[in-house]
Design brief:
Number of helices: 5
CATH topology of the largest domain: Arc Repressor Mutant, subunit A
Largest sheet: 2 strands, antiparallel
Number of domains: 2
Order of helices and strands: HHHEEHH
Number of strands: 2
Oligomer: single chain
Structural class: mainly alpha
Shape: elongated
CATH superfamily of the largest domain: Winged helix-like DNA-binding domain superfamily/Winged helix DNA-binding domain
């Protein structure tokens, strides 16, 4: 995974895990790899992954069983909410960025509609 300088690494890793949950790569009830395994995978300090796991638990996405590890919550509402929250964040960032180019709301809708129509044939 290539990290960018725009947001903290732990948030980028959290988002990567969230995407895996949303797209079904990680399923409810699945055990997450150990912190050490994930630190090796992402080539980061284990403390970074410790923070990732703590934040995922704080957000009620995962839970920890002492001595066993961290698991994805078995809650379909959580996955639906996670999907909607992440989509909303992407859209808000897009709107904020494109407005910097001087686009108004109608122009933004037109650009998105045109792109969706052109992608429909793919």
């Amino acid at each position: 995974m290539e990290f960018d300088n725009k947001s903290p690494i732990y948030i980028q890793i959290m988002n990567d895990i969230k995407v895996d949950i949303i797209n079904g790569t990680l399923k409810p009830g699945d055990k997450l790899p150990s912190i050490r395994e994930m630190a090796v995978k992402f080539k980061v300090n284990p403390n970074t992954l410790q923070r990732v796991y703590q934040e995922l638990e704080r957000e009620n996405i995962t839970y920890t069983q002492r001595g066993t590890g961290s698991f994805i919550r078995e809650d379909s509402n959580m996955i639906t909410n996670l999907r909607e929250d992440m989509a909303s964040e992407v859209i808000e960032n897009f709107i904020e960025s494109i407005k910097k180019f001087g686009f108004d709301n109608k122009e933004i809708l037109k650009v998105v509609e045109d792109k969706l129509i052109s992608k429909k044939g793919e």
